[in-house]
């Protein structure tokens, strides 16, 4: 991962970035969530990328979660590559929960556990994304 | 062009392998320098440099354009890391006293679409974005301009709009089209574009306001300088609105970038996850 990715700061308004669909119709910005898990699958696809990861529940059993991110074009312009995340990577996602209660999150940032690097996830939600560190 | 017959299969395979091996570095041309860009001493783009010209002396609109958002706090976006959306994207009548002059039949439709957060939006269903709306959506537009035609490519869904600049007559009975039919002529350095032949229920903003088959759209497009384009659009649609209305939008040039595939149907999941496809939600 390029170091440059981690130094970018972003100002994001609602519906900007990879605004393919109405964020508030699907996600609740008032339900922020942070989850750490092991990546099991990367769907580097349009209009939005989906990352699937196993997140341990209270008993430690892996539970599959899906994390929606920006589209490939938005992420590529931010310095991502299609192999920036790979199956087996341990990462922490910050984002907003889906309104329907499913294991679905609109990810705002992704932090690599091994390096601590935080990357903007190209989310279309929230009034303002935090600056990547 | 190289051919297998001239190179022999083994050499051709080697050439192909070399090409593939070198492809990743330039696969998306992210950051590849755009030619003919005026720059300041510090290397930054001179956004107020003179307007480029076509061979016929008229302004050249060629370039990649995004909405030039100008509200306080939003003009600081200076790269392509996050594409801005225009202030008219959600409500085309945001600057109008009383809002858009809807015909009564549009009012309950817009109200419903606003309240349900635009889940019926054709954009969500991966259908083409109408050009008035595309000026404000956070997707890159690439304009390719010659003396005879202006083509607006939309990164989203590989869309296109053609504006014929030969002042040709508009069709008498146009088959409804997602971008209509556009003919233009120059008035000094202003390209004057007239468009008809849109589809009924063509969304123009996130609230679900529409133009109809009866709409006539008149645009006056100017490239103010190297970095900016201004579009004044007047919509005359007696079927959809009680009176003509006008809007002015600005675009800002983007350099050192290229269009990157954004084909929505590739893995669109919103409609299914929201149970909007008529099938049982998982």
For the termini of chain B, the CA-CA separation is: 51 Å
CATH class descriptor name of chain A: Mainly Beta
Shape of chain B: globular
Q: Which blocks of ≥5 consecutive residues of chain A have pLDDT under 50? A: 1-19, 126-133
The tally of helices of chain B reads: 5
Overall SS class of chain B: alpha+beta
Tell me about this structure:
The complex is a heterodimer of chains A (133) and B (282). Chain A has 133 residues and is mainly beta. In chain A, 8% of the residues lie in helices and 39% in strands. Chain B has helices at residues 4-7, 9-22, 106-115, 131-134, 270-273; strands at residues 63-67, 141-145, 149-154, 159-164, 181-187, 190-196, 202-203, 210-211, 216-223, 228-236, 245-254. A nine-stranded mixed beta barrel of chain B has the order 1-2-3-4-5-6-9-10-11. A two-stranded antiparallel sheet of chain B has the order 7-8. The longest helix of chain B has 14 residues, at 9-22. The model of chain B is unreliable at 1-26 and 72-78 (pLDDT under 50). Classes of the chains: A mainly beta (133), B alpha+beta (282). Chain A binds chain B through residues 8, 10-13, 15-22, 24-26, 43, 45-48, 50, 68, 71-74, 76-78, 98, 100, 102, 104, 120, and chain B through 28, 30, 73-74, 76-77, 80-85, 89-90, 116-119, 121, 123-124, 126, 137-138, 140, 155, 206, 257, 259-264, 266-270, 273-274, 281.
């Amino acid at each position: 991962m390029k170091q440059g990715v981690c130094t970018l700061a972003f100002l994001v308004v609602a519906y900007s970035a990879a605004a393919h669909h109405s964020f508030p119709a699907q996600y609740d910005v008032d339900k922020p969530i942070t989850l750490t898990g092991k990546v099991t699958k990367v769907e580097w696809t349009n209009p939005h990328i989906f990352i699937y990861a196993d997140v341990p529940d209270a008993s430690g059993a892996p539970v599959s979660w899906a994390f929606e991110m920006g589209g490939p074009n938005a992420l590529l312009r931010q310095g991502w590559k299609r192999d920036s995340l790979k199956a087996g990577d341990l990462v922490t996602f910050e984002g907003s929960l889906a309104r329907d209660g499913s294991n679905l999150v609109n990810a705002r940032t992704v932090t690599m556990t091994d390096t601590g690097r935080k990357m903007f996830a190209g989310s279309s939600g929230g009034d303002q994304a935090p600056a990547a560190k | 062009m190289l051919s297998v017959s001239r190179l022999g299969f083994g050499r051709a395979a080697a050439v192909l392998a070399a090409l593939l091996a070198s492809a990743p570095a330039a696969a998306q041309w992210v950051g590849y320098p755009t030619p003919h860009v005026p720059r300041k001493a510090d290397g930054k783009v001179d956004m107020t440099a003179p307007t480029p010209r076509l061979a016929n002396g008229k302004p050249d609109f060629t370039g990649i354009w995004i909405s030039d958002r100008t509200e306080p706090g939003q003009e600081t976006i200076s790269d392509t890391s996050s594409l801005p959306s225009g202030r008219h994207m959600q409500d085309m009548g945001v600057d109008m006293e009383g809002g858009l002059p809807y015909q009564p039949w549009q009012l309950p439709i817009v109200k419903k679409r606003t309240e349900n957060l635009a889940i019926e939006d054709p954009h969500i269903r991966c259908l083409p974005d109408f050009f008035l709306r595309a000026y404000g959506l956070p997707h890159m537009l690439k304009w390719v301009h010659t003396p005879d035609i202006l083509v607006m490519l939309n990164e989203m869904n590989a869309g296109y709009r053609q504006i014929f600049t030969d002042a040709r007559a508009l069709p008498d009975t146009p088959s409804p089209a997602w971008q209509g039919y556009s003919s233009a002529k120059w008035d000094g350095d202003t390209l004057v574009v007239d468009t008809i032949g849109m589809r009924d229920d063509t969304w123009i903003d996130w609230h679900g306001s529409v133009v109809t088959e009866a709409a006539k759209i008149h645009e006056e497009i100017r490239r103010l300088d190297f970095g900016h384009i201004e579009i004044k659009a007047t919509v005359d649609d007696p079927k959809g609105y009680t009176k003509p209305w006008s809007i002015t939008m600005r675009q800002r040039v983007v350099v050192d970038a290229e269009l990157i595939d954004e084909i929505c149907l590739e893995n669109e999941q919103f409609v299914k996850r929201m149970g909007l496809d008529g099938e049982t939600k998982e």
